[in-house]
Amino acid sequence: MEDGKPVWAPHPTDGFQLGTIVDIGADSLSIEPLKQKGKTFLAAVSQVFPAEDDVSKHVEDNCSLMFLNEATLLNNVRVRYSKDKIYTYVANILIAVNPYYDIPKLYSTETIKQYRGRSLGTLPPHVYAIADKAYRDMKVLKMSQSIIVSGESGAGKTENTKFVLRYLTTSYGTGQDIDERIVEANPLLEAFGNAKTVRNNNSSRFGKFVEIHFNEKNTVVGGFVSHYLLEKSRICRQSPEERNYHIFYRLCAGATEDIRQKFHLGSPDIFRYLNRGCTRFFATKDTDKQILQNRKSPEVRYPVQNYASNG
Asked: Of 79, 116, 143, 160, which is most buried, counting CB atoms within 10 Å of its CB?
């Protein structure tokens, strides 16, 4: 790194800020931020990274950057995110940033058709491309393939897993009932493993291993889901703003009268395993009207909301 060259230097809230080197010391650099001309600060050499000549430019694969480091990778992802391009490659790894709203046609049937049989990198980065590569590798190598979906709460793991399942069953399914049954089983399974947290109203609090089975013609013929690492402590106790697993509240809100009497169901506030956390329901205006008053929490007349389905 040389004097006058653009660099990424540490920033207390933004992670990195753009600046130029004005002086080089033994183990630190004097940086002048581009947004604060005339002011300088010291940064350790190990915390300063070379920047691209055009920081507003973005690439579909981070490996295409002239300088690939933590700062340039984050900047490329940020620039793409601002343009509603939420997927970015690092070779054959896909980085996904949750947009928290629907991007038109991103997951449409037409988009699924575009990615079918196409090599990675020939089309813009997409979760469909990863799913198709795994399928083609399985077909060519005749070996089982795995797709690992990881990230923090609210990152979009659950939703992207659904998109992988939808892509495989739509593109390589038989068109029979089995395809829909695999996809439609997800909401039911999530009720037993998803819960409201401080950061996410629909957070997956369990590990999930999903198998998609193919026959000798490489067509989807079935699936299997095994759960592991369930957050068992949540069953017994929750933080004030968090909830137990969705299934308990769904039973309280929507059980038929005979089931309600059989299991002595009522408002979540009457159950010790529920009433130490948040006990309000999350419903649309229409479904809220269908919930009997004696099954609602008396603690607050809560605003009606939708579940955030961001994984």
From this structure: 160
